[in-house]
Backbone:
């Protein structure tokens, strides 16, 4: 009986070749195809895996689990790697790994194969997640191992009757899920060249977006959006809906040169319409519902968690603790945010909450003022005391 | 001979009343009016100060010093309080204080008076800066001290023939300089109400901005912009120019509920067209010219320095050290950034530098690839080792 | 009927005078005396409060609650303000405030009075904690309010038949609880003078400690010590016991010039024998049970929480979140630590845990080595890649 | 003509075998032996290198450079990895690399070989430093490459007449320089076993230290110690002297399980008598000469720099910036520290400075008090305002 390997199968050329290659190496291949909201035709993929020679093919729709257990943290934690990238692919890798490990455990496979190359982040994310989930499973990286050029790979495919993709000359390398779309390669490798329009799929160019602005009201409960213009939606529905609406208005394009875990800089073009709207609204709601000390410290947690996830360390004791911290800050992040969408802009027009810490009586300069202005004298006296002592000692900055 | 007090004189009602009030208290008032790029008619202000009874009135144009010594750090340090506010007023306060202290030292004044109320940040910034510059000078805060309602103040003004401003019913409280414009009060005190158009002055609404996008190329040397579309400009010219161009395109509106130093949340509307363009371009240039470890640690410095400045601690040993750190990171932040302005959007279309650390040969997926993909195997082995050890001990996350 | 005020009553001169002073101001005084492990004679204090004129006197032993809910975090979080001070008084203030508020709520008092002066941290801690617990209660600070010199206070006491303390000329100001003892004032105000022996009470001088070292084994469960030399103890018993044992061996003296919340530096002498032993042992156990990323990030949390507590912000949303983070890291901090006590030294001689992440097979240089040394080549290649790219660009440091 | 390789030659078995092994591989070996204060007999080493077959042997005494340019930062920056390890070996690696690169450039060598194994930090430090210094030089790691067991290595040595060390059965692996001594392996690999006395060389056991305490006064200028008991010393002399004096008193033993860069935990025993005395004294002096905000932020810099150095990134733009920050904080760290050494204890008995920010008039509770206690009322009002607003909204913690 042959050893089994579970292969993360996408239906594309790399993983189709990998099925054949692994069989040649003497393994039984259990294909596994996951949907995390990218809207692939899974029946086609299923059939193709079997056609390639896989002994089984598992199709798993993990979209709900993705939004509930992973994307929800990107919202509550305002997660953005390098203050820019809302962790589209990075967020899905741990979930995909989890599903692959479940299949591997069920089918008594000896390991898991992925289709990543040897220079990206995803190989690390998959392999480290697999170690974290089940250290007895081995990781296989056929694409990295065979090390072929594109041409050599196509030759191998032709030789073994592996169907080539129709648009084999797409210049881009794309990864997509519910939370967004990542694009790299081709012309994008020149960071001084503007991304051409064909690099985008989910968003209109701002110039092509409607001439009329659209205002929406998003209602959050405990840090997560639950209704739009008073219409209740699941988080998955909300994101799918906002991807369309905000994408139509040209919202959500990101063009970033980022520092990969593997030591190189790469130019990435992302489209994250729903993410941009929801994160913008969420931050706005936090400005009135978090105390100042939480508002000033939570970013330290957010930065750390973003880096953990980017680096493939979702399943780790540190991430577990960071999640608890973030959850605990969201109890009162409940309320409404008015958001205007217009030709690429997401503008917060207003935010309100039953738990608002904004106090008009304290903030106002009208006669309703409840702030004790005399207290400021004592405050400045003490707040400025270290400055004063230092200045008395050294003679003051005007003296330098 | 009477004791002299230097008064930061704006020409507005508060400081005009303050001249009279200080004279009544028995002081000679030395008015001092500073221009930090807000474009006031200083001759008018000068005359008005003398009319009010000031014994002297000093007019100081500190715009160049403001851009060179203060705004330059907001650029090099990407400074934004709470990741949002580019420190418009907060940046000018230390410079204004410095000039006031210089006048006070020259005129042998016993102290300095400012026109701030008792509930804002600026009173703290002025008074702490004065302590830092010359601890022998006393601070006076007439507006905070008299504690009048608007009506009482107007009554006092009428009684003492102090001219009332023509548009005394402007609902807003505004502070402006070269780096931007801050607006609060009135309808803005309701954080769920969208700011009305009359709250803005430097920017078009995106809807009213030109239908044609405009691309500009900004060239930076060591972290600061030095030319625009190949035309050399001083930093002051650059900012003035970009305020107009970007403002025209609807760029630079900020609507934020922020945590003041004095313990309250307040809703602020800022307009910072040039700041938004320059900071966006600067960050983009840093993505290709800073090493990863600098790129990941500098934000810690930036956050700390932003808070120092916001809290009035520009003149302090910590700020001095933070400035050195920031300066030292900018040596190679030289190059061009292509920026597109369009109806509220600032889009970076490209970035290049003679010192780029982006290496196409390492990043590419073409046959020119110079990256050693086999190294990834060893990297993952060691990078994932703590995960593996933890997982072996506790049985793995899939086991929970 | 008179308004009631709850007074934190210690039995000392300040609070005895305060009883009288508050009665003179027209209030009924409800005295409240708390024991947090300092070992005061509470019957005497109770009677004295009534003798002074208090309408009621509540005696509360809060020692268990102190160790369980407060000191436990100082252990799990290795809490030390400025990396030095294990938060002796700062930790007790929130609990004392909580008990005072409970009494105030039960007795329908309008507010709470404490005996702190106007220049220490404790006034802030009490008043902010009271705001946090019940914002409707007013805070009173008689000692700060009357502003008397020592002589004036004694005169007032004599005039009103308030008994003076027998040793009224003790030069020190002392606060003590189960977790340690704080001492300031007198000769200690000269930071170049060594603290004289009479400044210490809980510890022998190392010179006077036994000539024989003593090794103890402390067993921790989930971050807290539960047995000593195989003898189970409650946390309270453990601390009381270790204060004696370690104090005997001269362990736990701290001499620190610290930055107070109110802007001044003050020289403090602490004695914390049990704290030093337990924190040292706890840290040692964490070195083998925490993953590297937790071990490197937890100190950020610890520093923040130490500052929160020092600054009187125990009751706050941020502290709640920090507590959750810390708790979540302690699940596997279980095991034994061998600690040697000898003339002022606490030496960890060994640490072991069923959950140890230290792996002798990976660490060893013997033939049992399980570490894959070849992986290092790939690791260094990728880990060093940003350095290499930077060096190739700029010519290398040897070139400068 | 053969390619040349510069070999970091210690005179020990590993590098002696490496000479032979590299010659067998067809290279000319340029031996290079550095002294960074460990006190080796360099003449013997020099001769031995030539005997082994090296074409040249360079002997370099880099002790002064080590203390001036490297150790000085460990002092000014209070550098300790994981708050424990004063970076003994980690600090010397960049300097040794620098000297090796200089020799390689002078002799036109193609690369540099070191004697490290494949599981430690030092291989990474050397190879990354070499990349940073001169990216054209190749790194060679014979010991890692040959991958022999101890027995195989000895067999090879015997076969090729390479003299075996007399005490070939020393169970420990030791690295030493002026700043301390690191010891690992053997019985130390059991982290529950106390290190035996033969693991130590620089320090007496506290039990064997003199019964009389010794007080010394160290004078610092701008963060560095310059005289001891009024006797001027160079930094090198100071450290050599204190290693003896403090070592005699049993000071400077560290027993730590640390997280290596390469993903494993290892148990290390360090002896750093001078380091412990100087760092303790330096910290004490900083408590009175740094402002509170510097004192609270500098540790963030220190932690980052310690990790950079530990990870072999001394030569990097981030380290350059961190050094500038640290230097800039030391301008006023000038003064005297009284330190008592006694049986393993380093006790600070006093600290004074012409630039002390400790102000007895502000700190005192006597009638000389210059602190404005009334200011506290306003301070607490404003400092406590966020707490109060939060508490009013949510009903207060006593209500939960």
Residues:
């Amino acid at each position: 009986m042959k050893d089994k390997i579970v292969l993360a199968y996408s239906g594309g050329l790399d993983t189709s070749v990998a099925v054949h290659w692994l069989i040649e190496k003497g393994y039984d291949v259990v294909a596994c195809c996951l949907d995390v909201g990218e809207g692939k035709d899974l029946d086609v993929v299923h059939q193709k895996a079997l056609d390639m020679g896989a002994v089984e093919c598992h199709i798993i729709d993990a979209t709900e689990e993705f939004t509930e257990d992973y994307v929800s943290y990107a919202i509550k934690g305002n997660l953005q790697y390098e203050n820019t990238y809302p962790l589209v692919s990075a967020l899905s890798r741990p979930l995909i790994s989890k599903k692959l490990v479940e299949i591997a455990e069920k089918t008594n496979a000896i390991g898991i194969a992925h289709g990543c190359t040897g220079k990206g982040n995803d190989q690390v994310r998959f392999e480290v997640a697999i170690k974290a989930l089940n250290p007895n499973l081995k990781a296989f990286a056929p694409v990295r191992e065979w090390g072929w050029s594109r041409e050599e790979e196509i030759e191998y495919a032709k030789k073994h009757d592996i169907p080539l993709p129709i648009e084999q000359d797409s210049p881009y390398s794309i990864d997509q899920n519910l939370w967004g779309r990542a694009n790299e390669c081709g012309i994008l490798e020149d960071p001084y060249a503007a991304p051409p329009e064909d690099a985008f799929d989910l968003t209109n160019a701002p110039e092509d977006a409607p001439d009329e602005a659209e205002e929406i009201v998003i209602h959050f409960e405990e840090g997560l959006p639950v209704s739009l213009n008073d219409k209740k939606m699941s988080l998955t529905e909300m994101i799918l809906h906002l991807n369309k609406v905000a994408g139509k208005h040209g919202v959500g394009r990101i063009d970033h040169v980022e520092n990969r875990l593997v030591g190189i800089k790469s130019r990435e073009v992302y489209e994250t319409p729903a993410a941009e709207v929801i994160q913008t609204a969420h931050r706005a709601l936090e400005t009135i519902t978090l105390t100042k000390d939480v508002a000033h410290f939570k970013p330290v947690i957010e930065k750390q968690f973003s880096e953990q996830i980017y680096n493939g360390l979702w399943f780790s004791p540190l991430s577990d603790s960071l999640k608890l911290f973030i959850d605990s800050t969201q109890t009162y992040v409940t309320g409404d945010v008015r958001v205007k969408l217009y030709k690429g802009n997401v503008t917060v027009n207003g935010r309100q909450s039953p738990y608002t810490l904004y106090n008009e009586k304290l903030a106002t300069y009208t006669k309703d003022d409840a702030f004790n202005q005399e207290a400021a004298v004592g405050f400045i006296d003490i707040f400025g005391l270290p400055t004063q002592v230092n200045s008395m000692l050294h003679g003051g900055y005007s003296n330098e």
Summary: Chain B is about 40% helix and 20% strand.
